[in-house]
Amino acid sequence: MHISYPSSQKIYVAGKLHDIRVGMRQISLLDTVSVENGVQTREPNAPVVVYDTSGPYSDSNADVDIRKGLPRLREPWVERRGDAERLPSFSSACDGERRADAAAQFPLVHLPRRAKEGRCITQMGYARQGIITPEMEYAAIRENQQCEALGVSSHITPEFVRDEVAAGRAVLPANVNHPEAEPMVIGARFLVKINTNIGSSALSSGVEEEVEKAIWSCKWGGDTLMDLSTGEHIHDAREWIIRNSPVPVGTVPIYQALKKVNGEIAALSWEVYRDTLVEQCEQGVDYFTIHAGLLRAHLPLVQRRLTGIVSRGGSIIAGWMAQRGEENFLYTRFEEICDILQRYDVAVSLGDGLRPGSIRDANDAAQLAELAALGRLTRTAWQRHVQVLIEGPGHVPMHKIRANVEEQLRCCHGAPFYTLGPLTTDIAPGYDHITSAIGAAQIARYGTAMICYVTPKEHLGLPDREDVRAGVIAYKIAAHAADLAKGHPGAQVRDDALSKARFDFRWRDQLSLALDPEKAAEYHAIGKSGSESDHCTMCGPNFCAMKLTKECVHSE
Amino acid sequence: MHISYPSSQKIYVAGKLHDIRVGMRQISLLDTVSVENGVQTREPNAPVVVYDTSGPYSDSNADVDIRKGLPRLREPWVERRGDAERLPSFSSACDGERRADAAAQFPLVHLPRRAKEGRCITQMGYARQGIITPEMEYAAIRENQQCEALGVSSHITPEFVRDEVAAGRAVLPANVNHPEAEPMVIGARFLVKINTNIGSSALSSGVEEEVEKAIWSCKWGGDTLMDLSTGEHIHDAREWIIRNSPVPVGTVPIYQALKKVNGEIAALSWEVYRDTLVEQCEQGVDYFTIHAGLLRAHLPLVQRRLTGIVSRGGSIIAGWMAQRGEENFLYTRFEEICDILQRYDVAVSLGDGLRPGSIRDANDAAQLAELAALGRLTRTAWQRHVQVLIEGPGHVPMHKIRANVEEQLRCCHGAPFYTLGPLTTDIAPGYDHITSAIGAAQIARYGTAMICYVTPKEHLGLPDREDVRAGVIAYKIAAHAADLAKGHPGAQVRDDALSKARFDFRWRDQLSLALDPEKAAEYHAIGKSGSESDHCTMCGPNFCAMKLTKECVHSE
User: Fold this and answer.
1) Percent of chain A beyond pLDDT 90?
2) Do A461 and B303 touch (CB under 8 A)?
3) Hey, are the CB atoms on A459 and B538 less than 8 Å from each other?
């Protein structure tokens, strides 16, 4: 299993505080060749270093076997801290049961780690004690992939990462049981991150396909991924994904809990859910979507809506409350949930069960009521040093986007916002990666830390590999457009390098620097009229503005 | 040649002031079926009427033969006014020459019309006299396609169209020699319009392919189209396109003028250009891109740029000025140009020869200097009652978009802005329909009247049919997102109808209401588990939020 990018090599930047090396992708460029008065001059172009989510897959020296999983990068860091213990066995009751189907099993077993009694092992806990962990330094170095080479100064230092994590304005997902993941940071003052959703449904895809999609997502630039499986072999599929994922992995544990009670919503209980949390904590899930803010009092507000509840988790909880006549147990048990998450350093991503499912329902009373509850829960989690993300919509017309993110930041005390799109119109099924990239770019610009991709199949079916690619690239575009608008240090280097390559007719470099070099090369191959040509079919040889400009500049 | 849309029929709304009928597309919907306590109830859903750019092609009663061209809708209106005369022959010197290649010729000849001596026949001229033309009423009715059915009041009346055209804030392209075009209006207070570019280059596509692309663009919702041909048979290809185009057609006359002098830029002269204008005015081009604001004084500003000049027309003019050592003849002759355009009611689209070609060059001194010149030229054209559009960028990062459009509106006295994108990042060749839809939605929201599409092949090659479709749909999304954000009367009706269909599991209606019903149906067919199913593969039957919501609502 290997990922390669054109004209690129994997480089590693060493830490200064810790013995770490941070992987990046370095793209080498051709010289700029110019001819003036018959004399050819060559000017070298500095290589461009870009943020790299592909982990060991793109290191030609690494030998990755998905049956063994990725190297356990963070294991020595965790061990060195000495505040976690390795358990003799898995704590979840379903441990025996899940090993029944040998064929689907991941071949190796890694016994889980957990905080020693009385110790706090969350990144937030360390940050609040003033400790800069290797994870924090790693994340800081990653954010500044351009700056060192350029001599640009950046506000993003390891100390800054620590301070943002301590304040709750950033999340560094780092379950001790997912040591394969490369540390990264999610917060409004950092590069905008994107999440991809994968996972099988009852009607669809198998384990290998999901692992392949996970690696595929990392190839194109996905920063985190959520396994939303609701089909068969949930546990084993997740094991394969986590062991092979160089990026943090999130889940929605209520899906698996519901499967454990055979899909009978009223049969869901705290005990089943609790055991599922422990199972997933010990497996290495880095963050859980938990719909703890959806309360009984909010249900009447849903009646006024055009599209009701469109969150799967939200609808399960709403159904449970309606059928049982009880308050949401994720809310009433939230402190206990945090106590569990704290022992593994799993972040909570507070789900927006009432996110709007249409333009009409955007920023409505139901959404805002839940948001207020999420703000209260944020405080509860932070008291226990549990890291918090806040999930957001959904469907929001452009004029309501800024208010939406500003309201979130206010209600939730600056906890990082993590939105699904939002879609800016409902009328384009089949193109919702675009309707939502328009919204995602804007909501990210105004302070959303991570945007969850939407694929072209949204509302219509489960995405396949090509849909994942289309969704990831659309969201990399949205995130990068927001980074530029926010003035992230060094973000424009890649744009400038690509534009210069374009103006120089360095086609190879233009393609290497592209977010999707393969697609660009494919389109260029159709259009080109010679590999070294200084024009393309778009304008043809006589109407190429860049060619004419050069001639005009030279004739001056 | 026929265009069909699912569950749709062509309807016509009659004028009140004039004997006109305005074509629209009416989408009929299924009933909402609900079951409560075992009793089934059906509630009808009102049909949704949408803006229709497909002209007679979607009228099953119309018999369209592209060898005959479309019905000449506006011919009687022009005749009735009595202020234009039919010429005995074409006025352009190249008239004999262009008929040489019989094979490529359009079979019919319509002799051209032109204003009688001393009469002003532009829509702006009429508007300033207080006249509401049939064109104005037609455009007003089109803009309110939803409102009449809904009983929603709209500010867009025929009087309002007249006032906006009189003030120069809106353009109603209506060459008397393109009577096939259905009147429409371009202005910030109207629905956002989209333009598609088609046309052959020396390396590419033929006449039939371009006509097919033109109709294809109208099918997906293109409001105007520009024929940017630079290849062979420019005149004849344009004739086929105009005679078969139900939407206004624009060109960049300098392309053809340059061909007439065999591509030798220094050989371009006012005489050749002037004759080309007359030729195209008499053929029926509705608006010309003219790069009259790019001056010699601006060229030094280009030297500081990363990507120089990226406008084809701009680079031709820059080359001409550099080689001849003279001021831009489009600037020095601008009054004469306006006098020609006025006699046919051709609008001028003042080209932005210095639009930025990269994020780095956005909103720079070169662009702003040219914009100031465009403002002066706007006044000149308006003095002659010639309608004006102002072209804009290009490549602009998100944080500079609002300033860009506000500066344009200020400099150019509110003349409608017509931008190419803008692209919000340079790093995604192969996906520039998306990088630019993100920018186009925002620039439209802040007051740009028309956005020119960008296809996935931008920077890489000439778009094919599928690229045209991808570009048009991305731009319909951007335009509609902006209409929603601007609160255009009735714009949200289609979103709400589609969302309701989604919540009702009326799959047929969800697809019919989609901007691209064919793509949505294709994706749904892959994903569906039964034609009448109330879920898709995305979530499967047990995890469908909408299904669960309904159950939960019913169990309350």
Assistant:
1) 82
2) no
3) yes
Please indicate whether, in this complex, the C-beta atoms of B477 and A435 are within 8 angstroms of each other. Answer: yes
DSSP-assigned letters across all residues of B395-452: B--GGGHHHHHHHHHHHTTTPPEEEE--BS-SS-TT-HHHHHHHHHHHHHHTT-SEEE
With CA atoms as reference, the chain A residue closest to B507 would be A460
- Comparing CA positions, the residue from A471, A520, A108 lying closest to residue A284 is A108
Omega before residue A56 within 30° of 0, cis = no
Q: Is B180 helix (H, G, I), strand (E, B) or coil?
A: coil
**Contact between chains at B202 and A542 (C-beta distance less than 8 A):** yes
- Lowest model confidence (mean pLDDT) among B7-16, B463-472, B540-549: B540-549
Percent above pLDDT 70 for chain B: 93
Contacts of B322 in chain A (CB under 8 A): 552, 555-556
Averaged pLDDT, A425-433: 98
Report the residue from B460, B492, B520 with minimal CB separation from A460: B520
Quickly state the pLDDT bin for A556 (edges 50, 70, 90).
very low
Query: Using one digit for the tens of pLDDT, what is the confidence trace for B165-210?
Result: 999 999 999 999 999 999 999 999 999 999 999 887 655 556 778 8
Question: Contact, A312 vs A252, CB < 8 A?
Answer: yes
A227 within 8 A of A213, measured Cβ to Cβ: no
Q: Average the pLDDT over B382-399 and give the result.
A: 98
Record the tokens describing residue B52, joined without a space. Answer: 């229709």
CA-nearest residue to B459 within chain A is A538
> Which of B255, B315, B401, B528 has the highest number of chain A CBs within 10 A, making it the mutation to test binding with A?
B315
Per-position DSSP letters for A417-437, written without gaps between them:
EEEE--BS-SS-TT-HHHHHH
Rounded-to-integer distance, Cα A87 and Cα A74, Å? 18
pLDDT in tens, A298-314: 999 999 999 999 999 99
Q: How far apart are CA B207 and CA B244, in angstroms?
A: 12
Q: Cβ contacts (< 8 Å) between B484 and chain A: which residues? A: 359, 397-399, 424-425
Contact B555 A323 (CB under 8 A): yes
CB contacts, 8 Å: A434 with chain B? 433-434, 437, 473-474, 477
Q: Which of A1, A98, A99, A16 is nearest to A58 (CA)?
A: A1
Amino acid at site B547 = K
Contacts of A515 in chain B (CB under 8 A): 427-428, 431
DSSP summary character for residue A395:
B
* Cβ contact A430–B555 (<8 Å): no
Burial class (CB in 10 A: 0-12, 13-18, 19+), B60: exposed
Q: What is the pLDDT of residues B347-379, one digit of tens each?
A: 999 999 999 999 999 999 999 999 999 999 999
Distance CA A81, CA A15 (A): 18
Distance, in Å, from the CA atom of B476 to the CA atom of A533, rounded to the nearest integer, reads: 34
Confirm if B23 and B499 have CB atoms less than 8 A apart.
Answer: no
- Nearest C-alpha in B relative to A320: B552
The predicted model scores a pTM of: 0.96
B156's tokens: 């867009």
Mean per-residue pLDDT over chain A, rounded: 92
Mean pLDDT, chain B, rounded, equals: 92
Per residue in B451-499, pLDDT tens?
999 999 999 988 889 999 999 999 999 999 999 999 998 999 999 999 9
At residue B63, the pLDDT reads 85
Rounded to 5, what percent of chain A is helix, strand, coil? Answer: 45, 15, 45
With helix as H, strand as E and coil as C, how does A248-308 read? CEEECHHHHHHHHCCCCHHHCCHHHHHHHHHHHHHHCCCEEEECCCCCHHHHHHHCCCCCC
Sequence-separated (6 or more) residues with CB below 8 Å from residue B417: B188, B389, B390, B392, B405, B408, B409, B443, B447, B448, B449, B450
| Residue pLDDT, tens place only, B57-80 | 999 999 899 999 999 999 999 999
ipTM: 0.96
